Automatic annotation (TrEMBL):
Keyword annotations of the record: DNA-binding, Transcription, Transcription regulation
Pfam family, one: HTH_IclR
The IclR-ED domain, residue ranges: 68-245
Residues covered by the HTH iclR-type domain: 5-67
Lineage, opening ranks: Bacteria, Pseudomonadati, Pseudomonadota, Betaproteobacteria, Burkholderiales
Keyword Transcription regulation applies: yes
Protein name, per record: IclR family transcriptional regulator
Recorded GO MF terms: DNA binding; DNA-binding transcription factor activity
GO biological process: negative regulation of DNA-templated transcription
Source organism, top-level taxon: Bacteria
Coiled-coil spans in chain: none
Length: 245
């Protein structure tokens, strides 16, 4: 089983300290802020300096990050790691379920789809990336709300218009809150004909790269109900494997 490496953690903590302090730091200051012995901190800063991530001022001998970390971050961002993650995750979900799958983020008090994998079946449900859907009528939205802390969740629910999209849409905020709380125990959420007639979805949510992210499998209600238990098992396995603990 993978283990956390303290040395790797320390390297990341160095840059987190600089982001917080926003100033050059001496070795002793950094050691104090990291809770390290001066000698251990000296080795750490020396290694980062030799790698080009820190520079040391000649007179004060204070250390400060160089632009190299920014350059590396820009290179990573240019490849859009979230899209890479979503493409691989959704390919797995659609292959295992036989249904379309989607990834989404919270955008204000709505949900924005940013990736979609189409089902290979002739009868399927698809939303294009960039599509906005309501929190209260989507499995994605319910899953996002269910992952938030109670205070943030309640505040967000208060902003929802709770408009009826279909006859099955939940429009009562208290009933909606109760459903979200119940879903936290099951660790998944579903919608049946709530956002679109004849469409059923199962959603999960968690953190990917520190960003709250939701995923769902979605398809015709009759087919999704028939395969409900199997699809729930697929989503719970994905929840355990894809999201950060």
């Amino acid at each position: 089983m993978p283990q956390i490496l303290p040395t790797a953690q320390r390297v990341l903590q160095v840059f987190e300290v600089y982001a917080r302090e926003r100033r050059p730091l001496s070795n002793s200051e950094m050691a104090r802020l990291l809770g390290l012995a001066d000698s251990s901190c000296s080795d750490l800063l020396y290694t980062l300096r030799q790698a080009g991530y820190l520079l040391r001022a000649p007179k004060t001998r204070f250390f400060h990050p160089t632009a190299r970390l920014l350059d590396v971050a820009k290179g990573i961002a240019a490849a859009d790691p979230m899209q890479i993650f979503a493409a691989e995750a959704l390919e797995i979900l659609s292959r295992q379920s036989g249904e379309s799958s989607m990834c989404a983020h919270l955008d204000g008090n709505r949900v924005q789809i940013f990736a979609c994998q189409e089902s290979p079946r002739a009868l399927r449900y698809v939303l294009k990336p960039g599509t906005m859907v309501d929190l209260h009528t989507s499995a994605l939205g319910k899953a996002l709300l269910g992952t938030m802390d109670a205070k943030a969740r309640d505040a967000l629910i208060e902003t929802l218009p709770m408009a009826a999209v279909t006859s099955k849409s939940i429009v009562d905020k208290e009933a909606f809150r109760k459903q979200i709380i119940e879903g936290r125990e099951k660790k998944y959420y579903f919608t049946k004909d709530e956002g679109n007639e004849g469409v059923f979805a199962i959603g999960i949510a968690g953190y990917v790269g520190g960003q709250l992210t939701a995923m769902s499998v979605v398809g015709p209600t009759s087919r999704m109900e028939k395969n409900f238990d199997a699809n729930v098992a697929i989503m719970l396995k994905a929840r355990a494997e894809f999201f950060e603990s």
